[in-house]
Design a protein that fits this description.
single chain; mainly alpha; 0% strand; globular
């Protein structure tokens, strides 16, 4: 029998990995900087808490939203 809690945790980890990789590629930054941007974002909190079912959305859409609404509005990108 599949443990639903473990499966959900794995899915969230995979989603976060894809978002971070996409951020690094799209912004031309290293993975450490992309991780910092992601884990200090509101998006990271929303995914971790499962708010609004946001963890079920496409990683590219989530990453683009993060870039548009959080990163571009701040001075967080320093290569």
């Amino acid at each position: 029998m599949v443990d639903q809690e473990k499966l959900a945790k794995f899915y969230k980890q995979e989603l976060e990995t894809k978002i971070i990789g996409y951020l690094a590629e799209k912004l031309g930054i290293d993975l450490r900087k992309a991780m910092d941007l992601y884990y200090t974002s509101k998006l990271s909190t929303q995914i971790e808490q499962g708010l609004y079912g946001i963890e079920n959305l496409d990683y590219k859409n989530l990453a683009e939203d993060l870039i548009e609404n959080e990163i571009n509005k701040s001075d967080k990108i320093q290569k």
